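=== RUN LOG ===
request id: a7f3
mode: sequence -> structure
chains: 1
length: 314
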Amino acid sequence: MADSAQVVPVEEPAATATTTVTATVTTTEPEAKTTDQMESQTNKPPVGALVTIMNLFAIGVLPIFTFFLSLTLLGYAVWLLYMRSYDCEDILGLPRIQTIASVGLLAVFVVSNVALFLRRKFPMPALVVMFVILLLMLFIGLAYAGVNEMQTRRFPATGTWFKLKVMDNVNWNNIKSCVYDKGACNELVYGSPKDKPYNRRKLPPIKNGCCMPPETCNMDTLNETFWYRRKDEGRPLKTEMLYGGMVGRLSDCQLWRNDWSVLCYDCRSCKLGFVRSVRKKWWQLGVFLIVISILLLISHLLIFLATFWERFNG
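=== RESULT ===
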C-alpha cells in the first residue's frame, strides 16, 4: 500500500523547462528588434546636423559672400570717379554722367549692405527694395551694352545716343575742333615719309577713322598722310566743296584731303571712330551692371529664403 501510494509526477519539470525556454526566446526577440532599430537610426542622416549646416550657411556664408560681392560696386564706383576721361568727352557732358553713375553705384552698395544688416527684422521689405533697385540696374546695364537699340536713344552714353550726337553738325564741329587741337593725327602727320605704313588694325579707332581714308576707297599711299587716287578714280573734288552744304551727299572717299588740317575729319569713319573710342568704357560698364545685378539678385533671394528657414527651425 505504501509503495502504491507514492506516485512521482514526471512531466512537471519538462513543463517548467519549456516555459523557461520560451521566456528566454521572448526576451531575446525585443533585444534583437532594438538592435535593428538602432542600426537603422545610425544609417539615417542626423537631422540636427543638417539644420546646423543650413543655419551656418544662412548666418555666415551667404551674408559674407554678398558683402564681398557688393564690394565690387564700391571698387567700380571709385574707378569711374578717378578714371581719366577721354579727350573731348566733356563736349557731350560725359564726365557729369560718369560722376552720376559712380554715385549711383555707391548708393546701391550702401542699400545692399543696409538690407543685409536688417534682413532678420525686415526680410520682405529688404528683398523688395533690393529687387527693384537691382532690376533697374539690370535694365540700365542692358541699355549700355546695346542689347536693345530701340530703347537706348534716351539713355546717355549708349551706342545710339553717341551716334545721334556725332551726326549733329553743331556737336560734331565742336568735337572735330577738339580732336584736331588735341593732336590726334600729329604722330602720323609729322612722321618720316620713309617709315613703313602703320598697321591699321593696331591703330586707335579715332586715328584709323580721322587720319586715313577708309580702306574701301582703294587709294594708294606714299606715306601715312599722303594718299592719291588711281587714274580710274577721276579728279578729286575741290576742298571748298566740303563746306558748301554738300557734306551729307559726299562719300568718305571724296571727303578725304591730303591737307593735314582737313584729312578725314568730316568723314563718317571719323565720327564712328570717335564713338568707338569713347563708347568702350560705357560698354564695359553695361556688362558689369548686368553681371553684378544678376549675382546680387540671386544672393539676396537666397538670403531671404535662408532667413525664413532659420525662423521656421526656431
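=== NOTES ===
The beta strands are 220-221, 227-228.
The chain is about 65% helix and 0% strand.
=== END ===
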